[in-house]
Amino acid sequence: MSWGFLRDLLSGVNKYSTRIGRIWVAVVFIFRLLVYIAAAENIWKYEHDEFECSIRQPGCENVCFDHFFPVSHIRLWALQLIMVSIPSLLVVFHVAYRENREKHHNQKLHKSPGEIDGGLLCTYLISLILKTGFEIVFLVLFYKLYNGFKVPRLVKCDIRPCPNTVDCYISKPTEKMIFLCFLVATSCLCILLNLSELSYLIFKYSIKRYAKRVIKKRQ
Amino acid sequence: MDWGALHTILGGVNKHSTSIGKIWLTVLFIFRIMILVVAAERVWGDEQDDFICNTLQPGCKNVCYDHFFPISHIRLWALQLIFVSTPALLVAMHVAYRRHEKKRQFRKGDQKCEYKDIEEIRKQRFRIEGSLWWTYTSSIFFRLVFEAVFMYAFYFMYDGFRMPRLMKCNAWPCPNTVDCFVSRPTEKTVFTIFMIAVSSICILLNVAELCYLLTKFFLRRSKKAGNQKHHPNHENKEETKQNEMNELISDSCQNTVIGFSS
Q1: Where is the Connexin N-terminal domain (chain A) (predicted)?
Q2: Of A52, A112, A168, which to mutate for an interface test with B (greatest number of B Cβ within 10 Å)?
């Protein structure tokens, strides 16, 4: 799978982020994207082939696998990575829009197009809220779909055409669980970073506005 | 596997490292990442397919494989490499922060700034002193800790560094104690020992770099102390100047206060 696009997007976003934003980009890039590509993808590569049920009935394995893994862990992980990185595009687009406007009017409208103030601040805050929202949605989805973050060794299945309740064995359950825990931990870390960046920005700009008001009153 | 991006990030750090740091980076890339990507992947590629147990009981193979390999060697090495490379990011961030401050000074037109243009700031190589020294030293310390933790985890999980040919398994649903055979055990042992050896070399390089930095730090301190002893007049002249300035400031403050109160 080619993640070059996401990598370029994240590098582009880095330019217009606050310090906490840059830490977020580094965490997503190294502890999530790189771990996904370098390690996690291969664990789930042959999950269907290695899923084995104690029965010879044709179709039973397929049906049971489909019942227990409606969407594979690894696909959910990939979707989460993509959805969580996309809100940063809003910021990139807004900066590009500002630069375009400056070119069009042939004059400097802002101190610097990447300076986080005014409209760009709103866009940035919205992107932070969206990122946090997506993280939480995916964590909840994982929890609901798989009844927690545990991967059992054995699941019991009795869906047609399985003739009775058969034992089905999942491959590499411990390794999968270790990487799922890693995913949850990094997700939570990213949520914390987003929330602290949100509070930092709101606090900083409230102070600025308050200071401006005080100066105006004095004048 | 996409290690190219990590290579780009760490390559940037290379400029600001000591000579031992540069050797460490080379060892990391050539003897660990490249070997992992080029060779080890092929060797461990078919590990579960070719893990065979002497039973037809469905599920027994899966359960035994999971019992003996809670996390595959390859994944553990990949995680180790990622964690060990991460502290270098701290240095990269610190350097980027310094560059940002210098650029700000330059833009404000500060006379203290000694650069002629922005390009010079971008290309400048910072010396490892001051706060950067602390960041660099902590990054080496964390590297050492991660290396040691992973090596210990490896040893603990696999009872040493040998890959046995045969494992006996009696986890349910295996009907009794069955023989399970690992694929390519000798080749895996060779690669494991190789990776452990290179890890140890990296640990030694990190320890050497740490000692070098500490020695440099203490030498610099003793030089400064020596300079202070030999040139006390120089210090005294500066002190008297500062005292005069302090008096001027306090006088002007007193005048202002008196002015306000009246």
Answers
A1: 42-75
A2: A52
